[in-house]
Records
---
Amino acid sequence: MADLAVNLAGIRLRNPVLAASGTFGYGREYAAVVPLDQIGGVITKGTSLEAWTGNPPPRTVETAAGMLNAIGLENPGLKHLVEADLPWLASQGATVVVNVVGRTVDEYVAVAEALDARPAVAGLELNVSCPNVDKGGMAFGVHPESAYALVRAVRKRTRLPLLVKLTPNVTDIVRIAEQVRDAGADGLSAVNTLVGMAIDIHCRRPVLGNATGGLSGPAIKPVALAAVWRLARVGLPILGGGGISFWQDAVEFLMAGATAVAVGTATFVRPRAMLEIAQGMEEYLKCQGIERITDLVGAANPGARTG
Ligand SMILES: Cc1cc2nc3c(=O)[nH]c(=O)nc-3n(C[C@H](O)[C@H](O)[C@H](O)COP(=O)(O)O)c2cc1C
C-alpha cells in the first residue's frame, strides 16, 4: 500500500489533494459525488467577519483554457460558518481549512481569533489578495510590508496552522513569501488567480460586471508551477495550485516542492477530479515502487528546502 498521508505545516491530511477555496463552497453541493472524508481536505470559501455581497453580475466567463471570475468574495460571514457550516463539515469527516478574508487587519484578526481552538478547524489560509481599505485599496499581498504586518497580527492571535495564500500578481513573489515567513506563517499557498479580462465586442464593454477578474484553470498551470519552484527555497511547506486538472499535474507540483495541492477549476469540469487525482497518484507510487508520497516533494528541484 502506498502512503498518501502528508503533514502540511501542521495540518494532517489523509491525502495531499484539497478543494481550492471558493470552488467547492462548503462541500454541500458536491458531497453526494465527492465523499468529503476521501479527499485531503476542504478549503472553505473566503470567510469575512460579516457577510459580504460580492460583485455585480456577470461574475464568471469561460476562456480558451480556463475561466475568469469576479465573485467579489461573497460569503455569509463568520457566524454562519461557525453555526451552520463547520458542524456539517465535521459530520462529514472533512478536514477543514478556513480561508480568511478581510478589508482591514483587524477584520482578519477577528476571524482568526474566533476560529482558534475550534476542533472542527484544522488550519487557516489567509487570502492576502483582498484590497486593504487603510492603504487605498491596494491588496495586502502585493507589498512586503503590508503582507508582513497582516501575518504578524494574525499570528499573534491564533495557534492554528497558518497558511498564507500568495498572489502571483506581483513583481517578486519570493520577496513577499520571505516576509510572510518572517512574520510567523507556517506555510505558503501558491498561487491565487492572475488578473485578466474579456470584452464583449458587440456591446463594447467588459464581459464581467467588475471589468477585470481572476484567471484560473489549465492556462495558469505553468505560471503556478514556476512560482512553487521558486518558493521552494523559502523554507516553508507549500500548498501548490493553479490549473491542476489531472494527477500528472499534481505530481509536477509535488516534484517542484509542494507538500500538497489545491484543485479548483477542474472540479467544475469533472466534479470527481480530486478523487481521480488522489487515485492516480496512488497508482503512480505503486508503479514506481515508492512507499510514501512525501518522497516526491521537491524531487525535481535541487533548490527546494521543503522536501
Ligand atoms: C469561482 C472562484 C472563486 C474563488 N474564490 C476564492 C476565495 O474565496 N478565496 C481564495 O483565496 N481563492 C479563491 N479562488 C481561487 C482558487 O482557490 C484557486 O486559487 C484558483 O482558482 C487557482 O486554482 P485552479 O486553477 O485549480 O482553479 C476562487 C476561484 C474561483 C474560480
Note: The pocket of flavin mononucleotide is lined by residues 20-23, 45-46, 69, 71, 73, 99, 127, 165, 192-193, 216-217, 220, 241-244, 263-266 (CB under 6 Å).
---
Amino acid sequence: MKLKLYHARWSLCSQMVRVAMEEKGLSYESNLIKLCDQYSEGENLSPEYLAINPKGIVPSLDLDGEIVTESTNIIKKLNSLSGENDMDLWPADVDQEKLNVWVEDTTLTDGVPLGKTLGTAIPPFSLILINFMVKKYLSIFQAFKVFWKHPLRERGRFFLVMKFFNIQKPVAVRCHKVLAKSLIEIERNLENSGPYFLGKFSHIDINLMCCFHRLTDVKLDKILEIEELPNIKKYWELLKSRESYKKGILDFFGEKENGDIESVFGKKDSMHLEPLAKMIKNYKS
Ligand SMILES: N[C@@H](CCC(=O)N[C@@H](CS)C(=O)NCC(=O)O)C(=O)O
C-alpha cells in the first residue's frame, strides 16, 4: 500500500492529516504544494494538481491510485488502515454523535460561512497573514491569474482583493463570539470527560490540536491559559506533549513560515486577546 500526500506546510487542514498520519504510525510520500496565496508558484492551480483535486485545494491523498480529498474524509480513510501504532481515531465506545458534530465543526468545511463554527472562526484571525503573503509574493499579474484560474471562484476573488486592500480586522471581530463560546463548551466538556475531549484520544483531539496551534501562530494562545479555562490549559499541554504535534505541525515550520509570522504578528499578544478574555469572563459569570 502506497500513500502519497499532497499538502502544504502552513495549512490547517494539511496539519490535521499529517497529525493523523503520525498518530496512526503511517508513512507516506510527501508532496509539498506551494499554495497560490503563499507563493508565486501557485502549484495548487497547476494542471497536474487540478487533475488530482479539481477544487485546487490541499490536502489530497493518493492511496494506491485512489484519490481522497477533504481532510475529514482523508483522516477517516487513514483510520481504516493499520499503521505502526495501535490507534483508533474513531473509537466505538465514545459518544458518536458528539464526535461527528465536533469533527464537522472544527474543520474548514466548504460552504460553511467564515465564523459560523470553531473551524471557520479561527482562520479569520490569520487573514492578516494571508493578506501580507498575497501582497508580498504575488505580482499584480499573478493575482489576476489566480482570480481567473481558481476553481473556487470566491477564493480567487478574495485573493485578488487582498492584493490591493487590507481586509482583516472586521472579519476577526465577528468571530470573537463563536471562539469564546466554543472554548467555554470545550472547557465544560473536559470537566466531565478528560483528559482528552471524549476521554480517550480521537479524531476531534487532532482537529483541536491544530486549531489551538493556529491560535499560537496568531499570538492568541494566552486565551488557552486564562483562569476561567483551567481544563483547557491542561488539555493543551497534553496535546502539545504528543509526538504527532511536533512531527505533524512544528517540523513543517521553516524559515519562510516563521519569518512571515514574525513580520505580521511580532512578539506581542494579539489585539484580540483582551476582548476575547473579557467575553469569556462575562459568559462564565
Ligand atoms: N474542506 C477542505 C478545505 C481545504 C482548504 O481550504 N485548504 C486550504 C489550506 S488549509 C487551501 O488549499 N488553500 C489554498 C487555496 O484555497 O488556494 C478540507 O477540509 O480539506
Note: The chain is about 55% helix and 5% strand.
